[in-house]
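Protein modeling request. Please complete all fields; requests missing the sequence field cannot be processed.
Requester role: graduate student
Desired output: 3D structure, token encoding
Chains: 1
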Amino acid sequence: MSEQKAYASQDSRMLIQDKLHTSRDSEDPTAWLRETEIVSHDFPYLANLIADSFEEWIDGLEALPFAKSWDWCVLNFEGRYFANIADQQERWRHQWEQAAAASLLSGATSSVQLTVQGQDMSFFTIPLITRVDKEIFAFLGCAMPTQQYLMGGRDTAEAISLQYRTIFYHKFEHIFVTDLASVHQHAERESNRRSLLFQIVQRMHDNIDVNAVLTEVIDSISAMYPGARLELFMSQDHRSTHPQVKPLPFQMSSDDVCARAFKDGRVALNTNTEDQHIVEIGLPLGGKQGVYGVFHMVMDNSIFMDVDLRFLSMVADTAGF
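Delivered output (321 residues):
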């Protein structure tokens, strides 16, 4: 996917203005979505959304050969031509920007006539209006023979522009819903983790035996990230019969992730392994008198993307004794 097609996620989130005017009289539970809106403060950040909508819209003109034969472009809310967008004609840029300047003043479709290689051509821009506040957020530019323009071509182009607006808002709503879903998933994930931490703490407090506490922590972390390999290296003062609990080696290089976590008392990461797809995590197991050991986790990058290091640190701190 090209950079032009890819939405900059953070920019997209900045676009969304929470203006939910839910209609209580409507029986449609999604009616509020049609009332979400972009506002003038969002206009400078719409470039990716406008460009992506234009490319999808222009592909749909294949079903309308007469419209596909015309030249099209899209301009921003200031009437500036968007460069580097597929299917645009750079050669008519000046004419379209001139027409857009007139459209900004009139708020309506404006045209510029020019004779090109003996043929009269019309270049015009169609304002694209927001659905609630009725503000111009962009322009569609079209170029066609003046004869076609006078015989209904302009009206046809204006009708076709409505489909672009529909596509634009469909993509805008998708961004909005995706953002809401992300917030919901994050809240649900945090709730689940708090519940899990409470259960872990409760079970730990029910156990006085050190080995039982370590077993509880190892089993809990392994359950959260089943694709990860987990070992616990303990200082020589603490021994366990658990197969995943091992003595902390006396000789470790300064770059070793476990050595750094044990020495610094902070989470340590290592992505400079022979296999670039593998991530190592050193998670210190601390207590009142210092660090007693280190949880050593090895996992694929794909798993690491879902790892919550802060939560794991809380689990390890809770197990400190």
